[in-house]
């Protein structure tokens, strides 16, 4: 990795410096399998740096992350939350009508969704999630040696999430679609191309699954189509939002639960705190996604030439917001690399985004994780790491591939 702290080009009429260049590829296998040295380097180089390889700006600092995510007027989401500008010829794809849409268009859709995803609706799922978590925890303890990803996090999410979102999610299809969407958000590298190829046989299935007639009864997906019938959404929005829920809600939650299991297995003191008080399960999850953030980067695009933290930014340029790095910014966090389930970080960390587009499914993710981790803490005496965990390399998702664990009562 080499860094060049030389200015590249000064936009006309600005006396401010431009962000320094950094010649690191965050989408290389090396960085994807361990992004933390890159995060440190990016944060320490400057508040904003320019990745010379891609011609995009990036930030890994907490303060700048908050500013950008809260200012759609200067930093639009409508050019796509991935590295490519989806408005440009050859890059076009149908935008996510919620996430890749600025106010006022976003406000109306989000308002209706907020009513649908009310705390009362979410609470109704609790009983079901708890019952499933109890069955799961018993089975896992019986198995004793498990892969924390396939056998625990993934199996549990694939059991409870389809009923909520309304889309039947067979494992092979669901994993291929998830990998495709998070890889597609990154550059057209080998990971991107291979994931699109692997998902091709399932695209028809996916298209059918997010239609009205496929919705599972009693689900939020069904409620979206009912809202569309009442004229609260324009035609086509319900299906588009269902897609956003499947893409945004499945792999991210699996990753977050996987990271919680990994840290609890690594740190017997934290496990002991959780066992002594299983109501800390929510904190264990929240801290896991601060410590290792699944959705670790999303992009915005400058709407005009502007200034940020003393740097001149060009118009119409992508800016990557590395919330995974902001969540470890020592300017904001004490001892940021320490996993500490007693930290009170809900609403403070950036793992669920911030501002206009902050994650609308966060209560669901929290509820899933909390039920599962609490059920395990109430039954298991120990959780131990039995080998090196492996990361799954995906362009815009930080997640585990294998997590060998021994969980004993
Ligand atoms: C641990 C689990 C999750 C993580 C880490 C996560 C992360 C995020 C992040 C970082 C954003 C903001 C992206 C941006 O600003 O560019 C976001 C937005 C969103 N998430 Fe999540 N998410 C999770 C679970 C879920 C679930 C369970 C659902 C659906 C049921 C969901 C649906 C969405 C949607 C629809 C948005 C867009 C909101 C908007 O634009 O107003 N997410 N999520």
TrEMBL record:
Origin species: Pseudaminobacter soli (ex Zhang et al. 2022)
Record's protein name: Cytochrome P450
What Pfam families does the entry give? p450
The record ties this protein, via SUPFAM superfamilies, to:
Cytochrome P450
Keywords in alphabetical order = Heme, Iron, Metal-binding, Monooxygenase, Oxidoreductase
The UniProt annotation puts the region (Disordered) at 1-21
Looking up PANTHER family in the UniProt record yields:
CYTOCHROME P450 YJIB-RELATED, P450, PUTATIVE (EUROFUNG)-RELATED
Q: Which InterPro entries match?
A: Cyt_P450 (IPR001128), Cyt_P450_B (IPR002397), Cyt_P450_CS (IPR017972), Cyt_P450_sf (IPR036396)
Q: Record's superkingdom? A: Bacteria
**Family indicated by similarity:** Belongs to the cytochrome P450 family.
GO function terms (MF aspect): heme binding; iron ion binding; monooxygenase activity; oxidoreductase activity, acting on paired donors, with incorporation or reduction of molecular oxygen
Cofactor(s) required, per the database record: heme
């Amino acid at each position: 990795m080499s860094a060049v702290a030389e200015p590249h080009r000064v936009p006309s009429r600005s006396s401010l410096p431009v962000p320094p260049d950094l010649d690191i590829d965050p989408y290389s296998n090396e960085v994807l399998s361990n992004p933390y040295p890159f995060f440190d380097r990016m944060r320490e180089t400057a508040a904003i740096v320019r990745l010379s390889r891609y011609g995009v700006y990036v930030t890994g600092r907490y303060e700048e992350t908050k500013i950008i995510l809260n200012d759609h007027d200067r930093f639009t989401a409508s050019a796509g939350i991935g590295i490519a500008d989806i408005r440009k010829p050859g890059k076009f794809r149908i935008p996510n009508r919620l996430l890749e849409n600025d106010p006022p268009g976003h406000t109306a859709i989000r308002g209706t969704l907020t009513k649908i995803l009310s705390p009362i609706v979410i609470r109704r799922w609790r009983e079901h999630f708890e019952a499933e978590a109890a069955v799961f925890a018993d089975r896992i303890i019986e198995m004793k040696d498990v892969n924390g990803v396939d056998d625990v996090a993934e199996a549990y999410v694939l059991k409870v999430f389809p009923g909520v979102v309304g889309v039947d999610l067979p494992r092979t299809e669901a994993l291929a679609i998830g990998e495709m969407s998070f890889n597609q958000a990154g550059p057209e590298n080998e990971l991107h191309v291979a994931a699109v190829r692997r998902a091709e046989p399932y695209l028809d299935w996916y298209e059918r699954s997010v239609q009205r007639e496929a919705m599972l009864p009693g689900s939020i997906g069904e409620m979206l189509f009912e809202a569309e019938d009442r004229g609260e959404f324009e035609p086509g929005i319900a299906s588009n939002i269902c897609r956003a829920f499947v893409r945004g809600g499945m792999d991210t939650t699996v990753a977050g639960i996987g990271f919680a299991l990994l840290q609890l297995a690594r740190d017997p003191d934290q496990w002991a705190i959780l066992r002594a008080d299983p109501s800390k399960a929510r904190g264990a999850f929240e801290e896991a996604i601060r410590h290792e953030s699944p959705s670790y980067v999303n992009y915005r695009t400058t709407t005009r030439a502007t200034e940020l933290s003393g740097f001149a930014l060009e118009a119409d340029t992508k800016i990557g917001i590395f919330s995974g790095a902001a969540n470890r910014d020592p300017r904001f966090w004490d001892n940021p690399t320490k996993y500490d389930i007693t930290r009170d970080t809900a609403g403070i960390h950036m793992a669920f985004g911030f501002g206009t587009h902050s994650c609308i499914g966060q209560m669901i993710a929290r509820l899933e994780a909390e039920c599962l981790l609490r059920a395990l803490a109430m039954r298991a005496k120990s959780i131990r790491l039995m080998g090196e965990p492996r990361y799954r390399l995906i362009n815009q998702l930080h997640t585990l591939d294998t997590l060998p664990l021994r969980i004993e009562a």
